Amino acid sequence: MKKKWIIFGTTAALMLTAGTGVYAGTQLQEIKAYLNGNIQLKYNGMPVQARDEKGNAVLPITYNGTTYLPVRAVADVMGVAVSYDSKTSTVELGEKAEGVAIAKGFDSMYYTKDPAQTTYQGKDYKEAYFDNAGSARSSSFMLFPKGKYQKLYLQVAAVGENIDNFFVEDSDKNVKLKTESIAVKDGLKTIEVDIAGVSELFVYADVKKSGAMFVPLTTSYYK
After folding, report:
1. Is 143 within 8 Å of 102 (Cβ atoms)?
2. 194 with 80: CB under 8 angstroms?
3. How confident is the model at residue 74 (pLDDT cuts 50, 70, 90)?
4. In angstroms, rounded to a whole number, what is the distance separating the alpha carbons of residues 187 and 20?
């Protein structure tokens, strides 16, 4: 379905809702504007309510004949990732130019930096999730993109035994975003997942008794 916004009111522009750090810039100009509760928003023909990161309703601002909408709220409704770089005063929509490795902040009992476990097919990935517990089990971990990214490129390898049931789920909505099977012969398989607007991800696999799951954290990334 084609994505389309319908805005009832005056000419519209976009405005980012950001933290207090943005106000330290030197290009700010004080203005007198008005919160405009008369503006109604529709997305693909359906009424929508713009909300901030905490779920609070936000209103458009009207200034000098132009109505400004909060970028983050609009991006969330349209399923487009948005982030703000306070160092460069840059708003970035959609996929980032460079990927961000999931290794940063990763936490799991199967997280390892041991070269004996971070090496797969002769290459040392330095940091990895390697579950080789040695029993039939559920293997899982959490990721926290916090709505900042459009895509997840997750690399996964089945070691010893095929992984017949693997999925990535939006943890907040309990919705599966991607379901896969991973064969040993696939080697290191790259799984692409649309994660626009997603805050938390649950990654799950059924691993067989004589099998293991290997996920390199330095080459799996958000974008």
Report:
1. yes
2. no
3. confident
4. 46
Tokens 């398989």 map to which residue? 189
Are the CB atoms for 93 and 147 separated by under 8 Å? no
Q: How far is CA 133 from CA 25, 46, 125, in A?
A: 52, 49, 20
User: Does pLDDT of 111 surpass 80?
Assistant: yes
Domains annotated on the chain, with CATH: 5-93 (no CATH), 100-222 (2.60.120.260)
Q: How far apart are CA 88 and CA 166, in angstroms?
A: 39
Question: Strands (DSSP E) along 11-162, which ranges?
Answer: 11-15, 34-35, 40-43, 46-48, 61-63, 66-70, 82-85, 90-93, 100-101, 111-112, 119-120, 123-124, 128-131, 137-143, 151-159
